[in-house]
Design a protein that fits this description.
809 residues, alpha+beta, 13-stranded mixed beta sheet, 24 helices, globular
């Protein structure tokens, strides 16, 4: 019996080559996209699950409430984690991670070879007791015990040592903390799995610099900059421990919190959820929004459903070709269940063929798809048993969905009527086909509208006036004490170039995370009425270089000690007025017992500008005049040139003249601003590409249905031509039914588009409004695609010689 089923299946597939090819291409392309998206989503949800006892490792987050402001930080004050280890039996071990704040690159030297590395972090000696890494060289149990020891990432070690074992060798690390010799005690890679925390150098905490500051820090309220983790004992409950944290925090930090008028709450977050949770500030790496991943899963499902709809429509459309086969099988004793099994088996077989074609295509397309999604899924996944479980599940589900309706539809034919030539069934095939086509185009219109809305929002972000000048702005970073010492002479020479409008130095540049903040209050107030204000340290040229508008008072002047520029939001929050705020002194209190009062005089008021992402509303912000601060490590150079190549050549010459021992590196500010929206840009590219594929699959199915429709009505077309019907009239006759279905789909899609896109736009503090033309344009595109797809078959049928159509029965 089974052998007979296979023969029948292959004979039927071979006999109807066109429809078989359409189905296989649709299923193969749909499966390829669906499979890749599933792998992409699985990749993001796999972060940090490789660590030993991963389910018992938690990050300590801080929810901080200040007067008029609230922060959700992915960090905690330095003493919190070690105190938890000391106070709670539930805590097996702790560790802290602190990035080298303000240092973007580190110069590494070994035997005359030198390289720049970006990511370096100070970690406690307990780091590898909590987190699991594959050690290529060295021993994790004592890799970070000795002062000035460092564990290198494989890529960094390869740059300095090639294939040589570096353990025990000394390297020099040169950065803003100074030059120090470090002993290499290990080399690790990420072969065990990916982590939310990424660095090229693990520097033991007892190595000077910010590490010593962390070890001696006793601030329980402020200084929330340490990524802190605890590993609990296997039988301990994180929820129960979290309930004890308010009393714990009050025990050690009550006075400090009260002195800053701060409320603080500690949370324990499972490390496996960190990479896929958004909303926390000071994250060590970019996180991925679960809604973004859900959108991708939805797209994967839609593409696969569209491919399945094609299969269902074409199968039921050609049911009459197999009706007599069903009748004969029923006459000779086949039960309805046997027929259902046969047709479901055929669809599963076709789905399997599609997957077998999709897999090698996926291997070929991986580099392009990885570039599109900004990830790095390796071809080694094909050796992972979990991938094959996904494939088996995908084949089975696709086959059952695609074959379900054809199987039940064909098996429902009554044997006597079918043999007599009556192919009707109690299930309306034409009605179901129309419904499926409508559903298919609802999905397509929603995807097309999504592209339009996302593109419009990105275009709005790109062109919105941020309140500062981002075009023709160069950014230079100085990473070592030597290069920072030469910053001033480089600035002086740059100002002599005619293309340079202004040069300013600061501890950061606009669009980057602002890691400094301070609570200030107006005269007559106290720390309970203070506002938390983020700030940058600058010189007297920063406002001019960045094109910031002063709307009250004046800009910085030379020797403006203890003066600040505040934005409009600060003025409003503190109850001041733009006209009278200049000259006002804002106060800050710090210390326990006897407090120290620090005051800053407002020199001027800046018009609000979006110094951070447009996801957030403008917060209180100020500039502090401290041009000689050791924290300053960045230059902003405003230029005016149409010949970038010549201009950059001049600047490079100035660089080599003054800083010959460091590579010439710079960034454009507009590119840095754009990096804030990498997730949206990636989402846009993904939706563009996969929507195009979804439309292509829809067109394949529409093409097949149009061919079937033309074939069914060929005698009608022949008669119409004989009595004088024109080609355009016949094309219109065959196309109008499909256009009607698309119009119905358009009406259904409008509220879906409006709801889904409005919900997505809620993530932005500054966003577009959805206009009627967005879904309207999506509908017009869908209609145009339908007409182009159907017209090919319609024109072909219309120009066929009517004699040939009428001659055959």
């Amino acid at each position: 019996m089974i052998k007979n089923y296979f023969k029948t299946t292959f004979r039927n597939l071979w006999k109807n080559k066109t429809y078989t090819l359409i189905n296989i291409i649709g299923l193969a392309v749909g499966t390829l996209c669906c499979l890749y998206i599933l792998l992409y989503v699985r990749e993001h949800y796999s972060y940090d699950k490789h660590h030993r006892q991963a389910g018992d490792i938690y990050r300590i987050n801080s929810i901080i409430k200040l007067p008029g402001d609230k922060h959700s930080n992915a960090t905690a004050s330095p003493p919190i984690a070690p105190a938890m280890k000391n106070d709670f039996a539930e805590v097996q071990q702790f560790t802290r991670i602190v990035s080298t704040i303000g240092i973007r690159q580190h110069l590494l030297r070994y035997k005359g070879k030198s390289v720049y590395e970006k990511e370096a972090s100070f970690v406690d000696s307990t780091f590898f007791d909590v987190f699991s890494y594959h050690f290529m060289h060295g021993n994790p149990s004592h890799a970070l015990i000795e002062p000035y020891s460092v564990v290198l990432n494989q890529s960094t070690a390869s740059k300095l040592f090639d294939k040589e074992n570096p353990v025990g060798k000394m390297i020099e690390i040169d950065n803003s903390y100074g030059k120090h010799d470090f002993k290499v005690t290990g080399v690790v890679d990420e072969s065990l799995g990916k982590s939310h925390f990424r660095t090229n150098m693990f520097i033991t905490m007892n190595s000077g610099g910010i590490g010593d500051y962390v070890r001696g820090n006793d601030s329980w309220a402020g200084n929330n900059f340490a990524s802190s983790y605890v590993k609990l004992n296997a039988k301990s409950s994180a929820a129960d421990l979290e309930k004890k944290l308010p009393a714990f925090l009050s025990k050690y930090g009550q006075d400090q919190l009260k002195g800053l008028s701060m409320e603080k709450q500690l949370q324990l977050q499972p490390i496996s959820s960190i990479h896929t949770t958004t909303g926390y500030e000071v994250e060590p790496s970019k996180t991925v929004s679960p809604s973004f991943l859900n959108i991708l899963l939805l797209i994967a499902a839609l593409i696969q459903v569209i491919a399945c709809i094609n299969f269902m429509n074409l199968s039921t459309a050609r049911a009459s070709k197999r009706a007599k086969e069903v009748g004969v099988r029923k006459v000779i004793g086949a039960a309805k269940g046997d027929l259902i099994k046969q047709f479901l088996g055929e669809s599963i077989l076709l789905s399997l063929i599609g997957v077998l074609i999709a897999l090698p295509l996926l291997g070929i397309a991986l580099p392009y798809l990885n570039q599109l999604t900004q990830t790095n899924i390796q071809s080694a996944i094909f050796t992972d048993y979990r991938l094959w479980l996904i494939i088996v599940g995908l084949v089975t589900v696709t086959g059952l969905i695609a074959g379900s309706y054809p199987a039940f539809y064909l098996s429902a034919f009554r044997a006597i009527k079918v043999i007599k030539g009556n192919f009707t069934s109690h299930i309306s095939a034409a009605g179901i086909r129309r419904s499926l086509v409508v559903f298919q185009f609802v999905l397509s219109i929603v995807l097309i509208a999504g592209i339009i809305v996302i593109y419009s929002q990105l275009n709005y972000i790109k062109n919105k006036d941020l309140g500062f000048e981002k075009e023709q702005q160069l950014i230079f970073n100085f990473h070592t004490e030597d290069t920072k010492g030469k910053m001033q002479v480089f600035m002086d020479d740059l100002r002599k170039l005619p293309e340079v409008k202004a040069v300013s130095k600061a501890n950061n540049y606009l669009s980057q995370f602002v890691f400094n903040d301070m609570s200030l209050y107006a005269p007559g107030g106290n720390m309970s009425t203070a506002e938390d204000i983020q700030f940058m340290i600058t010189d007297e040229y920063f406002v001019k270089a960045n094109g910031i508008r002063i709307i009250g008072g004046r800009d910085f002047q030379l020797y403006d000690s203890n003066r600040i520029l505040v934005n409009e939001t600060v003025v409003k929050r503190l109850g001041l007025k733009t006209e009278t705020a200049p000259g006002t002194r804002l106060h800050f209190e710090q210390g326990r017992g006897e407090t120290t009062l620090t005051s800053f005089e407002i020199a001027g008021v800046m018009k609000d500008f979006n110094y951070s992402s447009l996801h957030e509303e403008v917060r209180p912000f100020m500039l502090r005049y401290e041009p000689e601060s050791q924290a300053i490590s960045t230059l902003v150079v405003a230029i005016d040139s149409k010949n970038y190549e010549a201009m950059l050549g001049k600047i490079e010459s100035v660089w080599k003249k003054n800083i010959a021992d460091a590579p010439f590196e710079f960034a454009f500010l507009d590119d840095e601003v754009q990096k804030q929206y990498e997730t949206e840009i990636t989402l846009s590219k993904i939706i563009n590409s996969f929507t195009l594929i979804a439309i292509l699959i829809s067109c394949l199915g529409l093409f097949g249905l149009a061919a079937f429709s033309a074939e069914q009505r060929k005698k009608e077309i022949g008669i119409r031509k004989v009595v004088g019907a024109s080609v355009s009239g016949i094309v219109g006759l065959l196309s109008k039914d499909f256009v009607k279905l698309v119009l119905i789909a358009f009406v259904i899609a409008i509220p879906i588009v409006w709801w889904a896109m409005d919900k997505w736009l809620q993530e932005y503090a500054y966003r577009i409004s959805i206009s009627w033309w967005m879904p309207g344009l999506a509908g017009l595109i869908a209609i145009a695609i339908t007409i182009m797809t159907v017209s090919f078959q319609a024109i072909r049928a219309a120009i066929t010689n009517p004699v040939r159509s009428l001659r055959t029965e």
